[in-house]
Design goal:
15 helices; eight-stranded mixed β-sheet; alpha/beta
């Protein structure tokens, strides 16, 4: 009886979350991007960079090679607290390097806010501002797709597809591709289809200049992108999704890199929940509608690894306490699997990704200690993931 009472809230929670994910998958199947015809917008591409001398040239070459009129694009590299040749290399490749030195206010959000405030007069000459991280790869159609989406009536913010460039490099990279597919494609596509916001995903996004110059970049936490996206929603502005405006990046292959990245991601999600869940619930209570309900349900969805662990826990404990609870856990796990597999089918995932799903238990075992320590870990601020060149590869 006591065990049943303990497991029941988890089962109810899993039922709500899995139903929501099933609805998101259905929405993703019916999703269509918003676009309009028109001349190419004049776009400023901002590339925030901290000590990226080994990475910066590649992203600048991608922008230069984009299928877009060169005279309509200007690249600004925000060389933030750099002690290497990032700024010099940026200039060599035709970009404007904006150097910032502030060791007390460190982080991507702070750097973006500084750029938008200090260089507003320059950026005001552009129709749109796109943001791409220095370690990303840009698809040739990215700027054209962003221009077409921002030309649609009422569209002020667009998030592209942020996915993994190296899914065949290892089973860890393949699982990262699967996770990104659910988080960065199925959920934003489903949410947009049902009238919700797609959220911001850190890189590969674009804004109408007037909006961004009005707001600046007010989010400075570990999850500054998602934080800003939720603030936009509270202000009545939704993020539109365009999967054809694609950026990619590699999943770290070294354990030390993966640990830093996972700690930053999961720590950021925890901070985001604490900061915005009460606000979103209050907004839903004050203005009940599907958009606000979607925002509340979305923030309730935990990281995929936690969700799978909760399903397994409910199956095991429910098998002892009440088979009906075990059935809820099993059904929820099936829905999560369907959402992931459906997303992989939509994205036409490489065969290696499908076969690497068998390694999910190994990843869960690796990640469990990190998740258990997360609530007790002091958040020390933004920490950059070490690059391969910095760890001897």
């Amino acid at each position: 009886m006591i065990l049943t009472i303990a497991v029941l809230p988890i089962a109810v929670y899993l039922g709500v979350v899995s139903t929501y994910l099933l609805i998101m998958l259905a929405g993703a199947l019916g999703f269509r991007k918003r676009q309009a015809a028109g001349g190419p917008l004049r776009i400023a591409v901002l590339v925030p960079a901290h000590n990226e001398e080994h990475q910066i040239a590649a992203i600048l070459r991608d922008v230069a090679a984009a299928d877009y009129p060169a005279e309509r694009v200007t690249v600004f590299v925000i060389a933030d607290n750099c002690s290497d040749a990032t700024a010099a290399i940026a200039r060599e490749h035709g970009a404007t390097a904006l150097e910032r030195h502030n060791l007390e206010q460190r982080g991507k959000g702070q750097a973006l806010d500084w750029c938008l405030r200090e260089h507003a007069d320059t950026l005001r000459d552009f129709d749109a501002i796109a943001l791409v991280d220095a370690d990303m790869q840009l698809c040739p159609a990215f700027l054209q797709e962003m221009s077409a989406s921002l030309s649609a009536p009422g569209v002020e913010v667009v998030q592209g597809l942020n996915t993994v460039s190296n899914p065949e490099a290892s089973w860890r990279a393949a699982l990262g591709f699967a996770s990104f597919t659910l988080i960065n494609h199925v959920r934003p596509a489903g949410r947009n289809f049902l009238g919700g916001t797609a959220e911001l995903k850190g890189s590969g996004m674009a804004f109408r200049s007037a909006l961004l110059l009005r707001t600046g970049w007010p989010a400075h936490s570990l999850a500054e992108d998602a934080e800003f996206g939720k603030q936009l929603l509270l202000d009545g502005i939704i993020v539109h999704y365009n999967p054809d405006a694609k950026v990619t990046s590699g999943i770290p292959l070294h354990d030390s890199q993966a640990r830093v990245q996972q700690q930053r991601w999961e720590g950021g999600k925890l901070l985001l929940f604490r900061r915005f869940f009460p606000k979103l619930v209050a907004r839903l209570a004050a203005r009940p509608n599907l958009r606000h309900l979607d925002a509340v349900l979305d923030i309730l969805v935990p990281p995929l690894s936690i969700l799978v662990m909760l399903c397994l826990l409910t199956i095991v404990l429910g098998g002892v306490a009440d088979l009906r609870l075990a059935a809820v856990g099993a059904l929820s796990l099936g829905v999560v699997a369907a959402a992931v597999l459906g997303g992989l089918a939509l994205q036409r995932a490489p065969w290696h990704v499908w076969t690497s799903l068998a390694m999910a238990p190994v990843f869960l075992a690796w990640k469990l200690p990190l998740l258990l320590a997360l609530p007790f870990r002091k958040v020390a601020g933004w920490q950059r993931t070490p690059r391969d060149t910095e760890i001897g590869k």
